[in-house]
Design brief:
Helix content is 64%, strand content 8%. The protein is an alpha+beta fold. β2 and β3 form a beta hairpin. The radius of gyration is 31 Å and the shape is elongated.
């Protein structure tokens, strides 16, 4: 009995620690992915352990036995609900309520069965097997990575052990009452298994949540709060990676530098709050005009200046610039200035293999300056050497003198 009690104490402590960790993660993260349900699940496991300590002191109270049974079932269900929330699976809450509610008729049937009845342990473990199998299905439908692979393995092993417990109970015996149960070899095995499940799932889920927090912190450090785009640091960092990949695979890249026209006049005439609204609107235009995220990077480089690194030819870059320019010029800020129209200018440069980002940006900036100098609200393409490949030397010697 001492071994089972010692392992039970470890389980209570371990579950309590993991519950506290998930509570802290839930309070610290802005993007919640089921940490609250995981905290509840591990907290209920800790409560379950405390109730098992109390059981021998209450002369085998049937009510307490029922509470212990339902507490552990609710704990497992809360963990599975946390997994569903983590993987953003739209599972109706009624499914989880039903899994817990299933325990009530099961236990009522158990009351009519003798402790030595071979059907009793099979029926007792059935709800737990079901919950574990639902957990396996949820993990299987989630993202494929090593953490989820190990989680799936832990839940699958857990489901198999729950299914095998009735046969182990028949082989080892479970005792004639709660006190005898806690002193049995079967109880020691059961508590040891729970330790394995708690530590394996707790550690894996804690790693996953910690990774989420690291990604969130990184995104915050790389994201401009006003526009929701990459800030200059994030933009340049991702540009370097994208350029390195393009250099290895010979994929064409174009850099579009964009700047709001007469932005100082906007701030002076309508105030900085209005200027912020215009910046946010322009950022949305740049994002919506860009192709999928793996083909374009969009960033706010400071003030009213923006950058877009596009996977494609200079012609595709020009088409993007024209599309964004026209879309922004067509916006009506009637709540700001009746019939007011704001515009932007664009400079485009094609990536030359081996050139550093600073030179790449400088060439696009020079093209942007030309667009401003020539009257604004237009797209200008920088001098390039590689585009004279389409059969005629005049294709793009100095493209983009109009907007």
């Amino acid at each position: 009995m001492r071994a089972a009690i010692f392992i039970l104490a470890i389980n209570v402590f371990t579950a309590g620690v993991f519950s506290a960790c998930f509570v802290i993660a839930y309070r610290r993260k802005s993007l919640h992915r089921g940490e609250n349900w995981l905290a509840l699940g591990f907290g209920l496991v800790a409560l379950y352990g405390v109730l098992e300590f109390i059981q021998p002191l209450l002369a085998d109270s049937e009510l307490l036995n029922f509470v212990v049974f339902m507490t552990y079932l609710a704990a497992m269900t809360a963990m599975v609900a946390g997994l569903a929330r983590r993987f953003a699976l739209a599972i109706p809450p009624g499914v989880f309520v039903g899994m817990i509610a299933l325990g009530v008729p099961v236990y009522l049937i158990l009351l009519g069965l003798g402790r030595g009845d071979p059907v009793r342990p099979l029926l007792y473990q059935a709800p737990f097997v079901l919950v574990q199998l639902v957990g396996c299905l949820i993990i299987w439908r989630g993202a494929r990575n090593w953490i989820n692979g190990l989680l799936l393995m832990a839940f699958a092993v857990s489901a198999a052990i729950f299914a095998g417990k009735p046969f182990l109970a028949a082989a080892l015996g479970i005792g004639h009452d709660t006190v005898a149960f806690l002193g049995s070899d079967y109880s020691t095995f059961s508590q040891t298994f729970e330790t394995f499940f708690l530590i394996s799932t707790g550690v894996l889920l804690a790693i996953a949540v910690a990774w989420d927090m690291l990604v969130e912190i990184t995104l915050r450090s790389e994201t401009d709060k006003l526009s929701g785009l990459l800030n200059r640091r994030g933009f340049e960092m991702h540009c370097d990676r994208m350029m390195a990949g393009a250099g290895r695979s010979d994929v064409p890249l174009v850099l579009i530098m964009a700047d709001l026209d007469h932005f100082k006049d906007i701030n002076d005439s309508f105030g900085h709050a209005v200027g912020d609204q215009v910046i946010a609107a322009f950022a949305q235009v740049l994002k919506s005009s860009a192709p999928s995220a793996n083909q374009a990077l969009v960033g706010r480089l400071g003030g009213e200046e923006f950058g877009v690194l596009l996977s494609g030819t200079v012609v595709e870059g020009r088409n993007y610039g024209e599309s964004a320019r026209k879309a922004f010029a067509s916006l009506k800020f009637e709540d700001i200035a009746p019939h007011g129209v704001f515009t932007a200018s664009f400079g485009i440069a094609e990536f030359q293999r081996g050139e550093p980002l600073s030179k790449f940006m400088s060439r696009a900036d020079s093209a942007l300056y030309e667009a401003k100098h020539n009257g604004r609200n237009q797209v200008h393409v920088a001098h390039t050497l590689s585009v004279v490949q389409e059969g005629s030397a005049h294709v793009l010697k100095h493209v983009g003198d109009a907007g």
